[in-house]
Fold this sequence. Notes:
By secondary structure, the protein is of the alpha+beta class. It has helices at 6-20, 25-42, 86-95, 129-146, 160-177, 186-194, 231-240, 248-258, 267-282, 288-304, and strands at residues 44-50, 58-66, 74-79, 103-108, 111-117, 122-123, 158-159, 200-202, 211-214, 217-220, 226-228. It has a 5-stranded antiparallel sheet with strand order 1-2-3-5-4, sandwiched between helices. Strands 6-9-10 form a 3-stranded antiparallel sheet, with helices on one face. A hairpin with a 2-residue loop joins strand 4 (103-108) and strand 5 (111-117). Helix 1 (6-20) packs antiparallel against helix 2 (25-42) and helix 7 packs antiparallel against helix 8. 43% of the residues are buried. The structure holds adenosine-5'-triphosphate and magnesium ion. Residues 51-52, 56, 58, 60, 75, 101, 116, 118-119, 121, 209-210, 221-222 line the site of adenosine-5'-triphosphate (ATP).
Amino acid sequence: MVTGSITDALREHRARIRTDAPEQRTQFERAAAAIPALIDQLGLDDFGGAVLCDAKPRILWRFHRCAAEPGPQVVLKVYGDQPRGEGPLLEAWARNKVPVPGLVHGVRDGCSWLLMRYVPMKRLALESPRVRTWASERLAQLGTRIHAAAPELNPLLRPLATVMSPRWQLEADRLRARGFHVPSHWDDLAAQLYSALPAGPLHGDLAGTNVGALGDDVIVYDASALSGPAAFDAARWAARLARYGARPQEVFERWAGFEPFDDEPRGTELLAVECVLEAGSISQLRGTVAMGAVDELLSTAGRLLP
Ligand SMILES: Nc1ncnc2c1ncn2[C@@H]1O[C@H](COP(=O)(O)OP(=O)(O)OP(=O)(O)O)[C@@H](O)[C@H]1O
Ligand SMILES: [Mg+2]
C-alpha cells in the first residue's frame, strides 16, 4: 500500500509507466484525467493510497470514505479504456451468489471504472495441499454459477481465442527457444481449442492472485471477463497450481466431478494447452521448483494431446 496524497500516487504511477511501459502512457493519462469527476460523482474522500502501483495503465486506489454504494471503505479501479466486462460480470455473479466484492461500475470519459467494497481478504496459502484442495473444490462448486449463461453480457465479453491465442504462441515459442519439445502441430490445436463451443462467460484468470480467502470462504475478483468453454477456467486454475506442486490433471478432474464438462469432451485437451502456456510462463523463473513444475506441466500436456 502506497500512502500519501493523490498527487504523489499519480506521480509515482506515472514514473513507473514512463520507465517500464511508456507505450501505455496515453491510456494511463486517460484514466488519471477521469479521476476528479469520479471522486466527485462517487463522493470519495479520505484517500487511503494506491493498493497497487505498477506499470499497468489502470488505477487501483483505496478511499476510507465514500458517500455512494458500496461504501464506506472502498477500492476504486479505473481503466484507461472501455468497454470492460469485468464490472457487469462481477455484478451478475453477485446476483448469482458467487462471493465477489460488492460493487458498482460504469463508464466515465471513455474509461471503465469499478467501485468495490474494501474486502479484508487474505492470500490463499496454496503451498498447502489442504488449502489447494479446499479452494479448488469451492471454486468447482461455484463453477456452474460462474459459468451460467448471461446473453446480455455477450457484447462485453472478449473471445477466449482473441486473448489467449497470441499469449499461447508467445509461450510455446519461448519454450522451443529454450530447448523444450513443443510439437509444431499443437499451434493449430491450441487455436482450435480456444475457439471451441459452446462459449459462455469465463473468469479467464482464476489463480491465487485473483481469488482470496475471506472468513471461511473464497472471494473471487479481477475477472478478465472472457467468452469461451467453461472448462477453460478449470484448466487455467489447475495449470496455475502446478507451481505450488499440484498435479494439474488431478485438480482438473476433481473440478469436473463438481461441474461436469459433458458437452466439452475436449476439456482435458484445453487443460493440456493451458499446461503449455503455464510452463512457458514458469520457465522464465529460476530454481528447481520452477523447473519441476515445467516438467510436470509439459508431461501432462504430452499425455493429453495427440
Ligand atoms: N475490493 C478489494 N478489497 C481489497 N483489496 C482488493 C480489492 N480489489 C483488489 N484488491 C487488492 O488489489 C490486488 C489487485 O487487484 P486486481 O487483481 O483487481 O487488479 P490487477 O490484477 O492489477 O488488475 P488487472 O489485471 O485488471 O490490471 C488484489 O490482489 C488485492 O490484493
Ligand atoms: Mg489481479
